[in-house]
């Protein structure tokens, strides 16, 4: 029997694409949606986060099993991968960037439809992972056999989108940021600083506004601050920078 929605309401406050599944007797609660219990069979989970993502796949003995697919607006395949019999990710995966979203109004269509592509081994990311935007590699790096970031990486701002095209370039050493890191915006090196061997900020750092949005002039500022062993020292300097046209 296919699982069906029963007296449930959409949870429009979700900030993550991760699911929180709780099983109570004959009902499965999935992010506020109520489904009839049927662990061996398909379970459809719908999120509304300025977008419309559905997760399609099977459960076996309470675990996700086999091939799962992630669809955007029920039609466009955006991600996929395989779970083993213990519900652990294995092999090649395409996953959604944590800030994945899309929004349309009468004026414009805006989105952050970014995916991350690479390999899992026993639930851990290994090898090279690419971050993809419209079939173009825009960032990425390497995970070692323990699933820890290592070597040169380009990472995206947590709120990366068409409104916040900020990335960071630098080096990881056994999961710790070390050495010089650059902040990139509009293909310009616009900020950054240096980490010591313990991953602590040291010396002069220049950061962008943490809530940067290209449509908000009030966020077009750089903040320069001295650090010692990760602690701020002295006076912070605030300065405006040229807006991207």
Q: Using only CA atoms, what is the Rg?
A: 21 Å
Count the beta strands. Answer: 21
**What is the average per-residue confidence, as pLDDT, rounded to a whole number?**
79
Approximate strand percentage: over 45%
Distance between the termini: 54 Å
Shape: globular
- Structural class of the helix and strand makeup? mainly beta
Tell me about the biggest sheet? Answer: 16 strands, antiparallel
Order of helices and strands: EEEEEEEEEEEEEEEEEEEEE
Work out the helix count.
0
Model regions low in confidence, pLDDT < 50 over at least 5 residues: 1-50, 103-110
Protein name: MORN repeat protein
Organism: Paramecium primaurelia
Structure explained in plain terms:
The protein is mainly beta and 245 residues long. It has a domain at 149-245. The protein contains no helices and 21 strands. It has strands at residues 21-24, 27-30, 33-36, 41-42, 45-48, 52-60, 63-72, 76-83, 89-96, 101-104, 109-112, 114-121, 124-133, 136-143, 149-156, 166-173, 176-185, 188-195, 201-208, 221-228, 231-240. It has a 16-stranded antiparallel β-sheet that branches. The protein has a three-stranded antiparallel β-sheet with strand order 1-2-3, with no helix packed on it. A two-stranded antiparallel sheet has the order 10-11. A hairpin with a 2-residue loop joins strand 16 and strand 17. It is globular and about 60 Å long. Residues 1-50 and 103-110 have low confidence and may be disordered.
């Amino acid at each position: 029997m296919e699982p069906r929605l029963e007296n449930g309401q959409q949870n429009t406050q979700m900030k993550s694409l991760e699911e929180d599944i709780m099983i109570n007797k004959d009902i499965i609660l999935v992010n506020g949606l109520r489904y009839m219990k049927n662990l061996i069979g398909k379970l459809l989970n719908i999120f509304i986060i300025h977008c419309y993502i559905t997760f399609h796949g099977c459960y076996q003995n309470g675990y996700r099993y086999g091939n799962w697919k992630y669809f955007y607006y029920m039609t466009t395949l955006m991600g996929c991968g395989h779970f083993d019999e213990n519900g652990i990710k294995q092999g090649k995966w395409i996953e959604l960037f944590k800030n994945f979203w899309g929004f349309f109004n009468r004026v414009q269509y805006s989105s952050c439809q970014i995916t991350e592509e690479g390999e899992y081994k026993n639930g851990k990311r290994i090898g090279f992972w690419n971050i993809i935007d419209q079939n173009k590699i825009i960032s990425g790096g390497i995970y070692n056999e323990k699933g820890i970031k290592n070597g040169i990486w380009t990472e995206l701002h947590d709120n990366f989108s068409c409104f916040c095209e900020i990335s960071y370039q630098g080096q990881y050493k056994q999961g710790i940021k070390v050495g010089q890191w650059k902040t990139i915006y509009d293909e310009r090196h616009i900020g950054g600083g240096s980490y010591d061997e313990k991953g602590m900020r040291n010396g002069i750092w220049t950061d962008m506004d943490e809530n940067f949005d290209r449509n908000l002039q009030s966020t077009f500022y750089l903040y320069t601050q001295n650090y010692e062993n990760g602690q701020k020292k002295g006076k912070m300097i605030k300065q405006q920078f040229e807006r991207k046209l």
